[in-house]
């Protein structure tokens, strides 16, 4: 019999719409104004802080909906934004500088929906509010690090080849190696050219000194800068993941800058602390031959430098770096056998081999762990940004008892909170070059709320216009199309709420409006084809059957071409473009399902298999 579906097809349509509605439902409950309290520099938020916060708000007469510890953070929900703002000031004063109090919006999803894994749409920066950072990579420091490492490499290579030199030093954006003998210089030039093909070597003689000057080629210079930028982007993404932001945006801008957008973050202190921190470790040998008193008076050996430990005591270290934090692949905080905080370090294969080779030959000597961090100073650059300065501190000095491998531990840390913070930074990765925040913007939740309201109003007006037109022009079949249109929107929102990587932005709302029109367009093709078949004298059931079958090819062709375009946009686009593309992809698939399967199911249910002389179309 024409125009009849088997039972399983009806059940499939009902199941898809029901599941979509279930996962779209959390968006109906909105969000609660909330305060998010987290520890500064690893300070833990305990139940005592929860009780203290509740007491302070209760004393001020501010009513709260709930307060709970979630993921080492305290989340306090309020009934309105006025109480939220008042509560922030009171809580910030009560807890002091050891805690960060940030404005937030917490989903008001019922617990039974959360138990099913349902949650509201993830909103982008333009809808959710949040912070926007524009960061600049210090390329000069990246090049300096490469040059400093080259000095150590040249010294090691020439010593291994027994080629005597007078000195190796950085000079004029390059590395100068000085020899006493021209023959040794020529042998060294031949050897180093083979070993370092990306460097350009030139002879530079002065009196009795025979010099060899090495600079990076243009291609190598470009590679170093590109590597520094890309590696910093990767590390910043890892640090953003540590912050727990739902849908961050991290992308490059130009040759030296990085854009970071963190939706939902209203207090920038914690974000700046983690993102901007350039904490890394260096392992160096202690210069045991140097006289500490003389070094403290300014007479430091040429191949060493003076640093200070956490108690401000001077320590003379060799300039040669055994290993840096770039080789750290994992770190965790724990307690040692004496209940003292420690950080457990795991190295990659090259780092483990280097550490093993070095410690094998230096058993019994003292090795220092140096914590390096770049901070913003009071002096300004020409563009008004703060100058960065390097702060180094010796965490601990330990005697190498035996050959070390890929795993070892660092002790001498003051508190467990500090160990956890250091572990987080090292686990996320050490920045190849320091970065500086040159632009910072905060988008408040009120502006995001206004954008949501405007977007919803635009969608409702567009939907209303389509519903009125379809109802008037196609009568009862128009009402079927309108039901399919509503189901289409429910499916889009439900699927986007389920997909982990889907984020709703203003361009995403535009994508929904666009798919609304495409969904109706498919129904228009089907209904016009049915009208045409009726005018040609076909029976009602035959006209419905042929109308759906003949229009299917045209609908598929038009939607597939649009789908291909949307997939390309998603693959190569970033930010708002990607948000628009993913909404469009889901919308196209949903509109094809509702227009072809959904409306056919309703039409078959209402008119299929019946003896009819005319249709309300």
UniProtKB/TrEMBL annotation:
It is found in: Cell membrane. Residues 305-433 form the SecDF P1 head subdomain domain. It is a multi-pass membrane protein. NCBIfam families: 2A0604s01, secD. Signal peptide: none annotated. Forms a complex with SecF. Part of the essential Sec protein translocation apparatus which comprises SecA, SecYEG and auxiliary proteins SecDF-YajC and YidC. HAMAP family: SecD_B. Keywords: Cell membrane, Membrane, Protein transport, Translocation, Transmembrane, Transmembrane helix, Transport. Residues 435-603 form the Protein export membrane protein SecD/SecF C-terminal domain. The chain crosses the membrane at residues 7-25, 455-474, 481-502, 508-530, 551-573, 579-607. One of its GO terms (cellular component) is plasma membrane. Residues 2-103 form the SecD export protein N-terminal TM domain. The gene is secD. Belongs to the SecD/SecF family. SecD subfamily. The keyword Transferase does not apply. One of its GO terms (biological process) is protein targeting. Residues 229-288 form the Protein translocase subunit SecDF P1 domain. The lineage of its organism: Bacteria, Pseudomonadati, Pseudomonadota, Gammaproteobacteria, Aeromonadales. This is Protein translocase subunit SecD. GO terms for molecular function: protein-transporting ATPase activity. Part of the Sec protein translocase complex. Interacts with the SecYEG preprotein conducting channel. SecDF uses the proton motive force (PMF) to complete protein translocation after the ATP-dependent function of SecA. It comes from the Bacteria.
